[in-house]
């Protein structure tokens, strides 16, 4: 399993294991089975339960095709919609514990997922051979859609200890200070904690200050510096995120 170094906005590299071709194929098969199950269910309801097949009597071939496309439309937008809603995952990716991320360290946007979706038409060409070859020969196991959108698929199965994750030990009686942290994603918090941990080790006050300012800007917070230092603020943010998302459970 190869590794990918994601460069954050603070020019800090974080190493992740890239998802293997096998993991991505299994995730694709799981998602495909879900989509097939949906199509079978919709057609069964349409033709057997609602008995609406008579509506297509007398229609020309194009009209019949249009009806089938409308009925099965959710399966076509399945990847882009679910990756947007599930922060880079589909049910198949979640089961395989893999996720789509931006190589530049930012959270992938809907536009990035859309580019991946559009290029899927090319990647699945010739029974998926195009995408498979691209993943095998590319540096970060990227298919054409990943390369075009600047994304990669990483494995979340990294065997690392708590200090290298978004996890943070908090007491049962812990009282959070900033509920706004729920606006952050796991990927955001992973970047924050990794950058902060590295900056504290070398006493890089500039990075700590920039990181603190960035968090305050994103969450629209105005903190009195006389009541809480930048280090205290970032520590609280990390603990609050774990409190509200239950990451320490």
UniProtKB/TrEMBL annotation:
Keyword Glycoprotein: no
One protein family per Pfam: RDD
Entry GO terms, CC: membrane
Main location group: membrane
Keywords for the protein's UniProt record, in alphabetical order: Membrane, Transmembrane, Transmembrane helix
Domain (RDD): residue spans on this chain: 18-150
Record's subcellular location: Membrane
UniProt keyword annotation of Transmembrane helix present: yes
Transmembrane segments: 25-47, 59-78, 117-137
Membrane-topology annotation of the record: Multi-pass membrane protein
PANTHER family for the chain: SLR0254 PROTEIN (PTHR38480:SF1)
Name used for this protein in its record: RDD family protein
Organism: Chryseobacterium pennae
């Amino acid at each position: 399993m190869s590794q990918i170094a994601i460069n954050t906005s603070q020019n800090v590299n974080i190493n992740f294991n890239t998802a293997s071709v096998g993991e991505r194929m299994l995730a694709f098969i799981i998602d495909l089975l879900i989509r097939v199950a949906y199509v079978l269910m919709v057609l069964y309801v349409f033709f057997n339960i609602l008995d609406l097949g008579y509506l297509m009597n007398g229609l020309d071939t194009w009209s019949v095709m249009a009806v089938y496309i409308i009925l099965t439309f959710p399966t076509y937008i399945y990847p882009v919609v679910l990756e947007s809603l599930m922060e880079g995952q589909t049910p198949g990716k979640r089961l395989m514990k893999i996720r789509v991320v931006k190589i530049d360290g930012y959270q992938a946007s809907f536009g990035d997922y859309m580019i991946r979706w559009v290029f899927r038409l090319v990647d699945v060409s010739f029974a998926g051979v195009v995408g498979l070859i691209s993943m095998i020969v590319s540096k970060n196991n990227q298919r054409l859609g990943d390369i075009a959108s600047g994304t990669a698929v990483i494995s979340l199965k990294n065997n690392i200890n708590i200090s290298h994750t978004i996890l943070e030990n908090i007491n049962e009686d812990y009282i959070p200070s900033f509920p706004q942290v729920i606006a952050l994603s796991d990927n955001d918090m992973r970047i924050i904690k990794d950058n902060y941990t590295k900056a504290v080790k070398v006493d890089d006050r500039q990075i700590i200050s920039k990181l603190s300012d960035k968090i305050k800007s994103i969450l629209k917070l105005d903190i009195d510096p006389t009541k809480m230092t930048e280090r205290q603020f970032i520590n609280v943010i990390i603990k609050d995120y774990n409190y509200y998302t239950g990451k320490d459970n």
